[in-house]
TrEMBL record:
<keyword id="KW-0472">Membrane</keyword>
<dbReference type="Pfam" id="PF17912">
    <property type="entry name" value="OB_MalK"/>
</dbReference>
<dbReference type="InterPro" id="IPR015853">
    <property type="entry name" value="ABC_transpr_FbpC"/>
</dbReference>
<dbReference type="Pfam" id="PF00005">
    <property type="entry name" value="ABC_tran"/>
</dbReference>
<keyword id="KW-0547">Nucleotide-binding</keyword>
<keyword id="KW-0067">ATP-binding</keyword>
<dbReference type="InterPro" id="IPR027417">
    <property type="entry name" value="P-loop_NTPase"/>
</dbReference>
<dbReference type="GO" id="GO:0005524">
    <property type="term" value="F:ATP binding"/>
</dbReference>
<dbReference type="InterPro" id="IPR012340">
    <property type="entry name" value="NA-bd_OB-fold"/>
</dbReference>
<comment type="similarity">
    <text>Belongs to the ABC transporter superfamily.</text>
</comment>
<dbReference type="GO" id="GO:0015408">
    <property type="term" value="F:ABC-type ferric iron transporter activity"/>
</dbReference>
<dbReference type="InterPro" id="IPR047641">
    <property type="entry name" value="ABC_transpr_MalK/UgpC-like"/>
</dbReference>
<dbReference type="InterPro" id="IPR003593">
    <property type="entry name" value="AAA+_ATPase"/>
</dbReference>
<dbReference type="InterPro" id="IPR003439">
    <property type="entry name" value="ABC_transporter-like_ATP-bd"/>
</dbReference>
<keyword id="KW-0813">Transport</keyword>
<dbReference type="GO" id="GO:0055052">
    <property type="term" value="C:ATP-binding cassette (ABC) transporter complex, substrate-binding subunit-containing"/>
</dbReference>
<feature type="domain" description="ABC transporter">
    <location>
        <begin position="4"/>
        <end position="241"/>
    </location>
</feature>
């Protein structure tokens, strides 16, 4: 197992990059803790797989260094880095049995036969293939082959890290949940450093201790699922995490008030004067119906009942705004205002979250 340090790292696929726009992976300086489980999350083309391939040794970065612990491994190949990698599409040996495929990394290292047999049996049970150990891999379904690939990646206990590149793409939805649960259990038991690339926020948030959100070749936030939800450091994080994502509204912020299309929205903190494109962001979970003169005027477009709650779709000043309401809550026919929880409103300047100078004190409740 290893702490992974990305030191002044950047990569371009062009031979002579001239500007930042020529870099698929823009400068990164991060330390990823030994034994932690990370998810690399972002849309297609954001740089996730490029970063994973640099960590694994399949790609040498244009700039910077990769350290495993105190050792510089930038020029080392995958074997020298002592890692296991599971790819998006299954890589198995069709002429071997399921058991032989799982045992292959251990036999290559001349492990004790008794240990190999026990380890293969344990991993086979974890991926639900203990009854198929003597079956040839040829002719198995794509999801069965991917389970073998996952198992082979996890069979070794002595690796520095296990890297997963969208490993559940071809797995059916129910099995995805089971395998994610098993991967988490494996991590808790053996403490491998794990990095899991995905564009699926559910996979990322349920698997990882910390999620690394990437956008346009940058890491825009590294944090726990709770931190990504409560305080997105970039508007992309707010938009990408959550269903629906964060509401973003153009604003002019003065002190503890945001002025949006002629309406004042109270904030949970005081802010300095801001330059650039200023927006406020709030999760639909913290938007509620208002009455009288409270909140902002909206036009309600529709209400979607998704079982556990309702999603209210509305417009404010010609832009969409969403609210999540309790299941079964009645929405009056004349409802036309929404209000925001001030302490849950984030402020952004040029897409990056601004920290308030200080919080606005909440009046104490009167004694009953």
């Amino acid at each position: 197992m290893a702490q992974i340090t990305l030191d002044n790292l950047a990569h371009s696929y062009l031979p002579n990059p001239k500007g930042e726009e020529d870099f698929a992976l823009k400068q990164l300086d991060h330390v990823w803790g030994d034994g932690e489980a990370y998810a690399l999350l972002g849309a297609s083309g954001c740089g996730k797989s490029t970063l994973l391939n640099i960590i694994s040794g399949l790609l040498v970065p244009s700039r910077g260094r990769i350290l495993f612990g105190d050792q510089d491994v930038t020029q080392q190949d995958t074997v020298a880095r002592n890692i296991a990698q599971v790819f998006q599409f299954p890589v198995v040996y069709d002429t071997m049995t399921v058991g032989e495929n799982l045992a292959f990394p251990l036999r290559n290292r001349r492990m004790d036969p008794g240990y190999i047999a026990a380890r293969v049996q344990k991993i086979a049970a974890m991926i639900g293939m203990e009854d198929s150990l003597k079956r040839k891999a040829r002719g198995l379904t794509a999801d069965a082959k991917q389970k073998i690939s996952l198992g082979r990646g996890m069979v070794r206990e002595d690796v520095n890290a296990i890297l997963f590149d969208e490993p559940l793409t071809v797995i059916d939805p129910h099995m995805k949940w089971e395998l994610r649960t098993q991967l988490k259990a494996l991590h808790n038991e053996f403490g491998h450093t794990m990095i899991y690339v995905t564009h699926d926020q559910t996979e990322a948030l349920t698997f990882a201790d910390k999620v690394v959100v990437m956008h346009d070749g940058r890491v825009v936030q590294l944090g726990t699922p709770e931190e990504l939800f409560d305080t997105p450091e970039h508007t992309f994080v707010g938009y990408f995490i959550g269903s629906p994502g964060m509401n973003l509204i153009e604003a002019e912020v003065k002190g503890n008030v945001a002025h949006c299309a002629g309406h004042a929205i109270p904030l949970g903190g005081n802010y300095k004067a801001l330059k650039g494109r200023v927006q406020i962001g709030i999760r639909p979970e913290f938007v509620t119906l208002a009455s009288g003169d409270e909140g902002i005027p909206v036009t309600i477009k529709r209400i979607e009942d998704v079982g556990r709650h309702q999603i209210l779709r509305a417009e404010f000043a010609g832009k969409p705004v969403n609210a999540i309401l309790p299941e079964g809550m009645a929405v009056p026919a004349d409802a036309n205002r929404l209000k925001f929880m001030p302490e849950r409103v984030n402020v952004y300047a040029d897409d990056w979250r601004v920290t308030p100078l200080h919080s606005v004190a909440t009046p104490a409740r009167e004694a009953v």
